[in-house]
Amino acid sequence: MSRATPLVLLLATLSAAGCASSSGSAANPALPTTMTPVTQRVVSPTSVVSINTLDVNSGYSQIIVGSMDAAWTALNVTYGELKIPITTLVDAQHLIGNEAFKVRRRIGRLPMQQILDCGNAQGIPNAETYDILMSISSTLAPNPKGGINLLTRIDATGKSPNFSRDAAVTCHSSGALEKEIAEIVRKKVGS
Length: 191
Description:
Layout (H helix, E strand, L loop, with lengths): L3 H16 L14 E10 L4 E10 L2 E5 L3 H14 L6 E3 L4 E9 L2 E2 L2 E2 H4 E2 L2 E2 L2 E2 H4 L1 E12 L5 E12 L9 E5 L2 H14 L2
Antiparallel strand pairs: 1-2, 3-12, 4-5, 5-11, 6-7, 8-13, 9-10, 11-12, 12-13
Helix pairs in contact: 2-5
């Protein structure tokens, strides 16, 4: 065995240990990161190339200054004000959401094209005209440095109401609705 081999093994072991998960500050298990395979097609005059990618969504986090009870009440009221029907409500985990929210055109004061990117057709954002099926969930957890973490995650698909009824496209969140939820909760809590 050469002198370089133990050094390589040591570096590989240290690298693997550095990549391992730590138990110091575990992520909230209520909203795990979702990974969705996505295939992109690139068409040129001479060929078609399919590129497989992975869409990773771990949510949008904001700090709320206030008590957990006040933030939880404000979050419940916020969903009601935005007319997002609550189908998931877990008080013990401070988890609220709707796993199958069907919506079109806007949520609250935000037009859908500001909330989601579903691609476009003929210069018009698809989010503006598509039927949207959205999974939205928010959870509250104490922040070790103070305040409360409000984590909201949106996964959505869209379908044309007129064409290819069976072909749904993946829509990506812009973060606008997540920010709106956090701002409304902040105002209600007074932070």
